[in-house]
Structure formats: C-alpha cells, structure tokens
Design brief:
The chain is mainly beta. It is built from 1 helix and 11 strands.
Length: 157
C-alpha cells in the first residue's frame, strides 16, 4: 500500500449569491365599460379579466361597489341592486367571489365590498383568466341613467 502525503495549505472561500424578483399583483380587463342592454331584473353583463400575483404567500381579492348599487343619475342614492360574481378558480378558498350591491335606498350606502384570501400558486404567478358576471337583482323604476363603479383589487399577503 502506498500513502501519499501532500504538503501545503487548502484554502476555501465563499461568496454570497442573491437576487430578487419584483412583486407583480395586477388586474387587467377592468377598464372596459359594461352597459346593461336594459335595466330589468335578471339582465346580466360579462367581462373577461386577468388576475396575476406572484407573491408566494398569496393575495387578497377585493371587489368594491362605489355607489352600493346601480345608482339613478336623477334620484341620488336610489339604486338598483345587483350581484357581481368573479369566477376565478384560484386555490385557497371558494372558486368565486360574490359582491351583493344592495345599498339601502336613500341612505347613500357607498363603498360596499367583499374580500377573499387566495393562496399563492404557479397559475396565479403566471396569470389566470377570470370572468366577472354582473346580474341585476331588481328592475329599475325611474327613467334615466344608472351607474356605479366596480373595482377589483389584488393585494399581496
């Protein structure tokens, strides 16, 4: 048996490696106006939206009605109730988020919202199509225009 002995020193070194990915939590497709063809109960409009959030902890989805219903342009704080359903099929909870905009007539109920926590996932990080369906729950009584602003926020957890 042969044994070799080496003389000299062994040097080891180390270096820190790092990097980062910017956070992206966005909604696209909400900028288009949705006009009901008529203001009768059961009438619905649909919009395709795109949700994305690359936070591994997931996000909070928040759907908000600024007027609390389809408010009459002529009769302030008189609104037509509706349901807005965001069908998203994201992991971590129900596959949809429902906002019932049923502001109390005459009381100016504004900024009605609903929130839902969803888990982080590869499909959410890459971007996920979703559908927003808004259905009138009652018919409009007064002539004239009706409007509301519906917003959808995606906020990292």
């Amino acid at each position: 048996s042969i044994t070799l002995l080496a003389s000299g020193s062994i040097f080891a070194g180390e270096t820190y490696l790092g990097g980062s990915v910017p956070e992206i939590c966005t909604v696209t497709g909400m900028g288009n106006a949705l006009d009901f063809p008529d203001m009768n109960a059961g009438t619905a409009v649909t919009s395709n939206v795109h949700l994305q959030c690359n936070d591994g902890d997931g996000a909070i989805l928040k759907l908000t009605s600024s007027e609390g219903g389809m408010e009459s342009d002529d009769r302030e704080d008189r609104s037509v109730h509706y349901n807005a359903v965001l069908n998203h099929n994201l992991p971590g909870g129900p596959s949809s988020l429902t906002l019932t905009a049923d502001g109390i007539p005459g009381l100016g109920t504004n900024d009605i919202f609903v929130e839902q926590s969803v888990n982080g996932s590869g499909m959410f990080a890459d971007g996920k199509p979703a559908t927003l369906v808004v259905t009138l729950e009652q018919s409009a009584r007064w002539a004239g225009g009706y409007s509301d602003t519906l917003s959808l926020d995606v906020t990292s957890r």
